[in-house]
Amino acid sequence: MEEHKTLVKDVFGESSDSDDEEEQQLQSKDSSNVDPSESIFGESPNWERIEEINGLWLCRDFLSHDQQSLLLSEIEEEGWLVEASHNQAMRFGNLPVWAIKLSNSIREVVLLSGFVLDSMDNSNCNEDKEVCLFPSDLLWREPLFNQLIVNIYQPGEGICAHVDLMRFEDGIAIVSLESSCVMHFSRVEGGALDIGKEYEMGLPLTKIPVYMTPGSLVLMWGEARYLWKHEINRKPGFQKWEGKDIDQKRRTSITLRKLCPTG
């Protein structure tokens, strides 16, 4: 963990112990220069491994309430989704500054998790998926992500079960804002690899629910990215957690991916 803190200091500089200096720093910053990751650094993020699905991890405390508000303001300032009929925006290649900062925050929060591979060899990841948040060859690629989608869902609106297109590399991040929701994962039928006894025995394929609160980060790689579909059904009666209906509000989703090389 000490080397992780050193890395953070190298990127963002030393923190000050002086209240006066800290106040001056806060006053000198405007909202466009605030890094959404700042209040996470120095703390241990709470990661939850979805045990049924290799390569699926959830961090519910990725962004604080204030960080979410700042991020939503920066998205609104882009002007992409001003009209009510526009509920999706895609960008490829050069991402906005806030999206680059968000990508950097994802990399740093993985580093601060307490487990980072010392080399580009992912053999340890394959042997012990319980501690591997993200393979090192994905974590250290440049850029980490170069494609984003911002989606706005009104109460009752969701997304059908799907696997992200093969035009994107392994390693996908989803940041969920504004409203809690349950994302369901189901195995790809007839996948090339052994994907479970249910399919082999002709039984109905199990759906694995993942509860995402506002500010949550989901990481998908490996089997989670290629052998499992994910969906959000927000129709009445489908959004429940621990036997209770979720109070649905508008939800904003940010998906970050890396395009496969062309040619």
From TrEMBL:
<dbReference type="InterPro" id="IPR027450">
    <property type="entry name" value="AlkB-like"/>
</dbReference>
<protein>
    <recommendedName>
        <fullName>Fe2OG dioxygenase domain-containing protein</fullName>
    </recommendedName>
</protein>
<dbReference type="Pfam" id="PF13532">
    <property type="entry name" value="2OG-FeII_Oxy_2"/>
</dbReference>
<feature type="domain" description="Fe2OG dioxygenase">
    <location>
        <begin position="144"/>
        <end position="260"/>
    </location>
</feature>
<dbReference type="InterPro" id="IPR032870">
    <property type="entry name" value="ALKBH7-like"/>
</dbReference>
<dbReference type="InterPro" id="IPR037151">
    <property type="entry name" value="AlkB-like_sf"/>
</dbReference>
<feature type="compositionally biased region" description="Basic and acidic residues">
    <location>
        <begin position="1"/>
        <end position="12"/>
    </location>
</feature>
<feature type="region of interest" description="Disordered">
    <location>
        <begin position="1"/>
        <end position="42"/>
    </location>
</feature>
<comment type="similarity">
    <text>Belongs to the alkB family.</text>
</comment>
<dbReference type="InterPro" id="IPR005123">
    <property type="entry name" value="Oxoglu/Fe-dep_dioxygenase_dom"/>
</dbReference>
